Amino acid sequence: MAILVMRPFPDNEATAAALREAGYGVLLSPALRFEPIAIRDEPDAHYNAVIVTSANALRGIVGQPLLERLRDTKVFAVGDATAEAARAFGFRDVESASGDAVALCELVEARLRGSGQICYLAGADLSRDLGTDLGTRGYNVTTLTTYRMTPLVHFSEAVEAAFGAGDVEAVLHYSRRSAQSFVGAVKAAGLEISALALPQCCISDVVAAVLREAGASRVLAAASPDENAIFETLYRAIPVKRRAAKSGKG
Hints:
250 residues
């Protein structure tokens, strides 16, 4: 028996390791594929701060001169995991909003107090345009689109076989787009009844809404948009002791 993790590579590997340590079986099925986008950098541009809402935005500038040029610039990250990624990429001054996009905007406002040049490293698909949000507050925001996430429209044979054998216990969803990709793959495989009946553990209400609209009957949204919180929803849905007992019966 296994927990199906829809998170893209490479973040899914860390998620899988944490789940295995907690006593769960894991099946990885990246719903999206990361693709960097070449950007046109202005070498003379000066920024007071960088904002990021995903580690992928930083991965998108690896190997580009922009990364080195920005490393001494203050970074505001949406959450702790993104902040840790920024430090791993060599940024020296990083602060986490420990929340969502609203919390990130509030943190920027508290630190920059209504003025400044901001570099927003973003993905091609934005659930919320922070450049516009901060622009209305008086900031000059340059949005650089550094990556896109391409949906993978089919499950692997191993995942379809696991669904067919009843070996999937719950599904973890980390973004709205990955949840949409999951729903598409479920429909393509003809698994609507079995797959959507499983517990769907989502990192936010926005993500959970995608599953509810698709007809999922057991949707749980994390109390806060971070991995510890999504794990808490999983622990409630499939306690480790119960999972171990079910596995032992097989």
